Amino acid sequence: MAIKTEPFVLNLGPVHPSTHGVFRMRTTLDGEVVVDMEPVFGYLHRGIEKLAEERTYTGVIPLTDRLDYLASMSNTLAYVLAVEKLAGITVPERAEYLRVIMAELQRIASHLIAVGAFLNDCGAFMTPILYMIREREKILDLFDMVCGQRLTYNYMRVGGVSHDIPDEFLPALDKFVNRMPGFIDEYDQLLKKNEILLVRAKGVGILPKEMAINISAGGPVLRGSGVKWDIRKADPYSVYDRFEFDIPTGTVGDCYDRYRVRIEEMRQSVRIIKQAMEQLPSGAVKSEVPHLIRPPVGEAYAHIEAPKGELGFYLVSDNSIAPYRCAIRAPSLINLTALCDMVKGWKVADAIATFGSIDICMGEVDR
Amino acid sequence: MTIVETSLGPGGRLAALPPDWPGGYWWHWLVFVVIILIFVVVMVMAFIYMERRGLGRLQARLGPNRAGPLGILQPVADAIKVLLKEDIIPAKGDKLVHWLAPVVAFVPALMIFAVIPFQDGALLVDLNIGILYIVAISSVATVGVFMAGWASNNKFSLLGAMRDVAQVVSYEIPLVLSIAGVVLVAGSLSMNEIVEAQSVPFILLQPLGFLIFFMAACAEVNRTPFDLLEAESEIVAGFHTEYSGMKFALFYLVEYTEVLALSAIITTLFLSGWRGPLLPPFLWFLIKVVAVFFLIFWVRSTIPRLRIDQVMAFAWKCLLPLALINLFITGLEIVALPEGLPWFLILVNIAIMVVLVVLWSGFFKLGGGRVEV
Lengths: 367, 373
Prior knowledge:
The complex is a heterodimer of chains A (367) and B (373). With 367 residues, chain A is an alpha+beta fold.
């Protein structure tokens, strides 16, 4: 005789150790099995899109820093690209290269946190994330050198970047780039063939290829499902068409594939930075741009391959000093939409691991 | 009385009596109870300090280093902090059970030390069923954990408590079977006599038994990779989510007391207890306990956590057959060599262990565990 049981609702969040911010998963559990899940978000809503309409074009840059606070450089890059497209501003060669270097460093920093947090969600007690934070620290030191900030950089400007790099930056960057592949090998050595990690991550939380395309997922989530799509190759912005790099992809789209894709992308980013350092031209880092930009009436959409996926800014101008409308295509939010389908039928522990493997940042989801 | 007394070969003794002590029976009890309490509290504080500093080193950071020289007063500061916190009982919780749970969990953990020999004959009571007593008493702590989970009226607590019960019940079986191998070789259930029987540490004669015991015991005291009941990333703090203040401190104490007890049991059963050259026996005992504890938190800092169904499958499909095979092989060896076990058996047993572990190593099925809903 079977014991009569009924499912119950468990609120994972909004304050929970592994919701990566203030996110709430309203899960219906049957014992340990997730029967249904409803993501609830909006706890961190600051109205950045609306606030942008009240600011000058330059004044919006600090706001975009606060979208995905683990990848501020990428956010500002996407925004200034949109403004430049709108106003038809050209950027000096050197600034383009500096932007690429910063964006790729930011990608490494963001992926380090993503991988570390994912392993933490799998139950590896703090060790991987602390090792990864050790390397992220070095990247933050580099950012500190160029702009004096460690989290919200405000470095990319319309028409270039805010400062040229100091003399000690390139040697420090060179040292970092040479040591980073060794560190990545170190993580691999610890966890690539770890039996427990394999059984926890392989085949768990599968996002099928078709569904990944249908929900217009981006970044490692999309590539983990085996889709070879990267804005840097598909629609090259800045000077990305001048570098050689590969797009790592997964096969089945499980947590392990997403984890591997991130690790491989870090290696590719190091490759890009090396090439950019060799080709770095001299010259100005900022073109002449008026203090108050008044773009002609029109609209522009610029998108980049942010660490978490395709980050796009859609700006509408009415020839005033502030954007008439600013809409943000946030990759975290779009990748999150598949969560319910990915975790149904799995255990609570898998739901947490899958959620960690999507790698979201609540600052970007809620905006 | 006569049921539990066993004569052990020629000249067997009544092991249930405590060893001679000036002043007699009650004096012995009083002194040893105090010694055990002090030992447990001091060692738990030392363990907390060692674990926090050691984990710090393993995780590429410093660990606590502010309170006192090298942070040595950190456990004291922690204790004071936690004792000064407000004691909260959930409004809809079961108050009496909520109060009782930490005590029910703590007492059995402490009672294990009654039969741990700190050196030859230096133990509270040399029960002739010592190891059986440990097995029986250690599972009572689960009741306390489940009481805590139930009384908190919190879903996280209940999930954690349910996981704990399922896990402890499953792992008890390979645990006992691996102990049986040791008992067969030693020819006694008394902890002191098991140590006396170890002219070589049993980890060499029973390598597979040690492996099974270590893993099953880690599951029993909920250390990584089996720390499901307080899996922070999933169910916040498990059964003690709703505990604070003194009662939380007691649960914290239980956790480390159990680990200390586990280290002491492993030392006694497999690492020849207090025996060792040169140094005094008590020091040998301490060194071995600390070494086992280091191994435990090293594992904790290295590997991720298993999922509940994988934990259960590991107990029933991997550890249980291995423990049975181990028991069978040990029995065969003892029957075949009644004169005593020769030294080459060490190599034979290690070879058997390697073969069996390799055979069972492809055990986990990848991608399993999904349920259609």
